[in-house]
Amino acid sequence: MEYERLQQEMESKNRELAVSTMSMIKKNEFLNEIKKQLQSTDLDEVKPIIRKINRSLSNEDDWKFFENAFNQADQHFLKKIKKTHPDLTSNDLKICAYLRLNLSSKEIAPLLNISVKSVEVKRYRLRKKLGIQAKQSLIDYILEV
Prior knowledge:
Blueprint: H1 2-39, H2 47-57, H3 60-73, H4 77-84, H5 90-100, H6 105-112, H7 116-130, H8 138-144
């Protein structure tokens, strides 16, 4: 009975995490679209708006919210990976967390406010830091941690 309750609680946390992640992705994609449209104009009045959008896109509050929800759903992952690989940066840990949720590079890009190509480069560098062989999948490795 207790096990079933805990299982349902875990599923609920995972659903909450997935919903919050997808809403952050959609919000950032929307802000990026608005920013592109505003950048195509030469009006000086839009520059402060673009700065506000940039601040919102690089907002650490989104990551803190996500990290809190992620830690509730998968309590020991970030601690384990930090312990196993202490040289990982905070950006590396973010990528690991997003990969743990099985997000694609296309889905990760707006969360980090970078291009899909930059995500691919970060994934490649992460593979090197983690010492993963070319034959092994990065996502499989992260899911095993």
